[in-house]
Each structure stands twice: as C-alpha cells, then as structure tokens.
Amino acid sequence: MPDSSVSRTASTVATTDHAPATDPAPSPPSAGVPRALSLAFVLGAVALGTSENVVAGILPRLSAAFDVPLDDVGLLVTAYAGTAVVAGPVLALGASRIGVRTVALLGLLLYGVASVLAAVAPTFGVLVAARVLTGGLHTTVLVAFMLTALSLAREGEQGRTIGRITLGLGIATVIGVPAGNALAETAGWRWAFGFIATLIASARVIGYVAIPEDRSERGETGRGALRVLARGPVLAGIGMTAMAGLGAMTLLAFAVPFLLAAGASAGSVAPLLLIHGGACLAGNVLGGRLADRGLRRALTATLAATGLALVAAGLLAGGTAGAVAGLAFVGCTYLATFPPLNTAIARAAEGIAPDLALAVNSSAFNIGIAGVGWRGGTALAAGLAPARLPLLGAAALVVALGIGVLATVGGPGLTERSRPTPSP
Question: Which residues, 6+ apart, have CB-to-CB distance to 62 below 8 Å?
C-alpha cells in the first residue's frame, strides 16, 4: 500500500588494467521528507483507507438507493479488495519503466476521477466500475508513496518514514471511515465518495509541488523484475505479513461480537472501539521508532508481542474491561509490525524490484484478511465462543515468527540489503 530507488548505495567506479580502483564517492546525506510531502502522503493514505472500508458501513443506503438486494451490494466491497489483490502486482510490473513521480501523480489523478465517478454514479453498474478502478489503483499509489518516502528518508529514519504512511491508513479507520459514514447519514451516500475525492485532490495538489523529479532506476524491469520473488528474504517478509494479518485480524475483524460477548452494551461498542483505534495509532508510531533502532529486533519484538497480546486478550475476555484492554493491546502490537515489515521487504528487494515486492506484500495482506472472514466465521458457526478467537489467531503468529527465524538461516537475512546480480 516514490522515480528513485529505495537504495542509496554509492555508484562503483569501474576499473581496468590501466586504471586503479578508486573509492566510491559518498552519497550526500538526505535532507529527509519535506513536511508538505509527508502531509500529502498522510492525506492520500487516509483517502485510500477510507475508500476501501467506508462502503461496508453504507451498504444498506446503497441498497435502497439503487434498489439492489443487500447481498448483491456487497459486491462493492469484493470488487475493491479483489481488484487490489490482482492489479497491484500487475501494475507494478507494467509501471516499472515509468518514473515514480509520474506513477504517483497519475495514480492519484485517476483515483480521484474514479472517486468522483462513484459520487455521481447514476446506476449500480457505474458504481461497481468506479470501485474496480479505485481498487486497481490502491496498491500502486500506496507503493509509490512508500518508495518516494524511502528514497528521501534520512539514514536511520526509514521506519518512521514508512510509519507516517501507514499511520494514514490507521487514521482512516479511526477518523476517515466514521466521518464518511456520518456524511452518508446526514447528507447522503454520495458525499462519502465526495469526501474521498477531496482528500485525493488535496494529496495530488501538494504532491505535484513536493514530489521531486528523479529519473534513477528502481531496479529490474519487465520479466527481470520477477527475480525478486525468488529471493528468500522477500518471500519470508511476505509470508510474515500474511500470517501476522491472519492471526491478528482473527480477533480485530470480529471486534464487535468479541466485545458484546464480554458484556459490553450495544451502545457502548462505538466509544470502546475508539480506544482500540487510538491504541492502533500509537502502535504504528512505536513500530516506526523500533524499526529505526534495529530492524531485526523490531520484527521479532512486534510479532512476538502480537502473539502474546492475542493470548492475553483471550485470557482477559471474561469481562468488558479486560476485553477492551486485550483488544487495544492487540491493535497496538499488530500495527507496530507494519513499519518494520514494509521497511524490511523494501530493503531486501532494493536494486531488483522493490515496487513489485511491496505490491505482492500488499496482496498477501489482503488475501490473509479474506481468509480471516472464512476462518473466523466458520469457527463461530461451529460454536466457538467469541472470547476464544484471540487464541485461535495466536497460532498464526507462531508461524510468522518461525518464518522470520528460518529467513536468517543459510543466507542473507530479511533485514539485510539485497546485492542484486545482473539478470541473464
């Protein structure tokens, strides 16, 4: 979920029989990501996260507006997520020869146009088409943000830089989606999409001014970029992302029934979820700082903490206070995994195809989330108590930690920069 390489390694001076080798010239230190550009990234990420999730809260209104059965209106959710899973890696391959500034600005432009199309959609079919277009661009825009941010980040601040972007996704959940739902309730559903279009337009205007022009190559292009998916560290990072999402979201996707089963009243659920949302934002910030202090330690600590948080949530679910604390703990620790995982994958793929690696990672995350609905729903239908959902998810975090351990054995670790070899 940026045309410069994530790598900032110095160029090597060629040597011949008649010319002695010279030391590579050091790269000048980066001035960091400008504040205006950070604002554009946050606004864009808020828009992407809101667009992805706001529809779930207004499905009944859309069903009534278009006189379409509620089950069929649910296609709007599937159309976005499914297209994002498939289109993200495909577009990453297709755009590998295009400057990252162009990718970011063109992606934002098209996303904004599609959001306006959704806001004025005269028929349900047009709204579905708009959701397909926005879903297809979701990963492309997000990855472009990440690559730009990493290319500009000061040494030792990559984790916090990525964290600002994933923070925008968290803000979307805590503020963006409720704001969109409130607009739909008070002014009509079209205003929810208008709100998203406004955020995207703001991000593009700022980005047009603030995103630097950089024509340096990101890495391999075309079929050569597929080599990145053969790198063990990259595959390990993608696997860890999928398993962490599968584990944590087994609880977070069913937060409402979990709280209700613990004794919370229906009217108190929304305020209690705000506590969870605040914990998620705090965890994202913490994860960025931990990543900059030591990427390997950050990965191990945040994944292990998420597993322990799930166990604690299951043990504390006997009362409302314990359930709220457990839910907040899981949200905090899980969101803390985002900056180190994305930073590690980009680092492991740099010089080859970091855009493709990050796009596939985003798709793996969404596939994991899709698996959560089936897994959790099946378990609850079979009679599993909602309080036991966290314990069901904890096993996936054990697998994620195991992948991380195996990734460091017999080769370069996930947190080490790649050393690409020329493609044949």
Answer: 55, 68, 73, 76, 124, 127, 189
Q: Which two tokens stand for residue 285?
A: 């910030």
DSSP 322-358: HHHHHHHHHHHHHHTTHHHHHHHHHHHHTTT-HHHHH
Rounded to whole angstroms, how far apart are CA atoms 164 and 422? 34
CA gap 421, 424 in Å, rounded = 9
Are 335 and 212 in contact by the 8 Å Cβ rule? The answer is: no
CB contact at 8 A, 89 and 359: yes
Residue whose pair of structure tokens reads 């010089």 in the numeric block: 351
Q: What are the tens digits of pLDDT across the range 200-225?
A: 999 999 999 999 987 666 777 777 88
- For residues 346, 348, 352, 358, the Cα torsion angle rounded to the nearest 10 degrees is -30
Is residue 367 within 8 Å of 239, Cβ to Cβ? no
d(CA 67, CA 61): 10
| Nearest residue to 211 (alpha-carbon basis) of 134, 151, 139 | 151
The CA distance from 245 to 157, in Å, is: 25
Decide if 128 contacts 75 (C-beta within 8 A): yes
Total residue count of the chain as it appears in this document: 424
Of residues 379, 82, 347, the one with CA closest to residue 251: 379
Token pair for residue 134? 């926005």
Give the residue from 79, 201, 211, 219 showing the smallest Cα distance to 135.
79
372-386 pLDDT, tens per residue?
A: 777 887 888 888 899
